[in-house]
Amino acid sequence: MRRIPGVPDALQRVIIKKLVLTALNAKTRNAAFASFREGFPKGHLAKRLSNKVLETLLFRFIEKHPHLEWAICTDQGIGLMNLDAQIAELVLRHFTKLGIPVLSVHDSFIIDYRKVGMLKDVMAKASRQVAGQALPVEGYRLGLDEWDAPIYVLQDFEA
User: Fold this and answer.
1) Residue 73 contacts by C-beta under 8 Å, 6 or more apart in sequence?
2) How far apart are CA 33 and CA 101, in angstroms?
3) Are 111 and 100 in contact, with CB atoms under 8 Å apart?
4) Residue-level pLDDT, tens digit, the chain, 159 residues
5) For residues 95 and 125, what is the distance between their CA atoms, to the nearest angstrom?
6) Alpha-carbon distance 97 to 93, whole Å?
7) What secondary structure, in 3-state letters, does the chain show?
8) What pTM, to 2 d.p., does this model score?
9) Which one, 4, 53, 116, 119, has the greatest CB density within 10 A?
10) Cα-to-chain-centroid distance, residue 22
């Protein structure tokens, strides 16, 4: 996506992300743009972006991600949150049945470092069941069950 003139890259990312998330929850573009501006403090650069500029940013986002066009300004937020909750419920039920503690935090899970690979597999299965396909999973570190290391290293790591 091209840069917004005069806007630092880090702020541009914040603006685009906020605009798209707002547009997912809005019924119309005008409602999305008004709500977008309300989300920033007085005097913030984003409050001064015109509808024309916001429309251009949304257009550029859709150009880059055309598969999401159907969801923009069609009040999809609640439905998407419901899908997320269904996936989380399946994950939590799975680990509860096994007696393995897992904590849901927004759209993430915290689990014992020896069960991270299992968690990723369960999340993929749950998202396939709810959304029809395995959704991408991001993890900052490998779990011990994903690490291909000699057994003596793994045993030392667990001690």
Assistant:
1) 23, 26, 27, 28, 29, 31, 32
2) 42
3) yes
4) 566 777 788 888 889 999 999 999 999 999 999 999 999 999 998 999 999 989 999 999 999 999 999 999 999 988 989 999 999 999 999 999 999 999 999 888 999 988 999 999 999 999 999 999 999 887 767 777 777 766 665 555 554
5) 13
6) 6
7) CCCCCCCCHHHHHHHHHHHHHHHHHCCCHHHHHHHHHHCCCCCCHHHHCCHHHHHHHHHHHHHHCHHHHHHCCCCCHHHHHHHHHHHHHHHHHHHHHHCCCEEEECCEEEECCCCHHHHHHHHHHHHHHHHCCCCCCCCCCCCHHHCCCCHHHHHHHHC
8) 0.68
9) 119
10) 14
Question: What are the structure tokens assigned to 111, written together?
Answer: 């689990």
Task: Provide the β-strand partners of residue 111.
Answer: 102
Token code pair at residue 147: 């690490």
Structure tokens at 95: 């680990």
Provide the token pair at 26.
Answer: 């809005």
